[in-house]
Amino acid sequence: MKTVSNEGLLNNYASEPQVYYAEYPGLWQQRQYAFQAAIATLFVSTLILVAFGVS
Asked: How far is CA 30 from the centre of its chain?
């Protein structure tokens, strides 16, 4: 929101977002996170092994 005072001074303030609390992930989300972690671990391990194999 941009406001200008009678003296011509500009006040530019960022609008503050509404605060909310995160919800604990459900069981299906936890399983999805575990699956993503397993894929990421496999990917990084493969990259490291390929790097050692090439060098």
From this structure: 17
